[in-house]
Design goal:
Chain lengths: 108, 108
DNA sequence: TTGACACGACACCAAAAGGTGTCATATAAT
DNA sequence: ATTATATGACACCTTTTGGTGTCGTGTCAA
């Protein structure tokens, strides 16, 4: 529900620096139209729009039309998937375990 | 340090399903050579090798040569960057804040 | 109602990504 | 010594990605 058509992997959506910057800008400002987002990037309006579409396909931004402008806002909820994923591997870098694993390797 | 030559964005390295699966396999097994990793994927040895190279460039896997095989093992530490990044945005999806933000939007 | 603005949709293009197969080399096994 | 295995390094190909510019439509302002 909520998403029509294509769906996009959240990991993929977040992989590009431009899109992470978009997320940051939207997090700070709450809601912004395309023409206010564009000047923050070294590229044209169309390119920024496409990045926003990708974020939208991943469920990371939502859209509201106000007059002639389209306001984009962050929906961070899908990031939960990333947090869950990375949390699982956090046990592999806790400093104690890291030292332990290194020791075990030397034994072999 | 420890990385020579090209460096690779961790977000980018983790964006591809094949590479996340590689991380999982290495996390479970501790250390595996290429020819044991390959059969888990619907692609050839060369392709898997390239994915491992990308993970290596991101510092996510380390390598040890044992006889004629190259053993790959996970170094999860770079994932910390992702965890830090996503932790910042977690405040935007905590259920209380989500409800609050929605209310504020309706006011406007 | 005329003109400026905001945007989506589209055609287009270069570069990167993600596969393939082949070859050369180092090691292990017979 | 010879043969089989494991891998890295290439050359190559197709698809996707990330950018551009243009056009058409809807909305606001004069």
């Amino acid at each position: 529900m909520g998403d029509n058509g294509e769906m996009r992997d959240v990991f993929d959506a977040v992989a590009h620096p431009t899109r992470r910057r978009l997320i940051q800008l939207l997090a700070e400002a709450g809601e912004l139209p395309l023409h206010e987002l564009t000047p923050h990037f070294p590229m044209g309006r169309t390119a920024v729009s496409k990045h926003l579409t990708i974020l939208k396909e991943a469920g990371l931004v939502e859209v509201r039309k106000v007059g002639r402008e389209t306001r984009y806002r962050l929906n961070a909820a899908p990031l939960q998937e990333i947090q869950d994923w990375v949390a699982y591997y956090s046990k592999f870098w806790s400093s104690n375990l890291m030292r332990l694993r290194k020791l075990l390797e030397e034994e072999e």
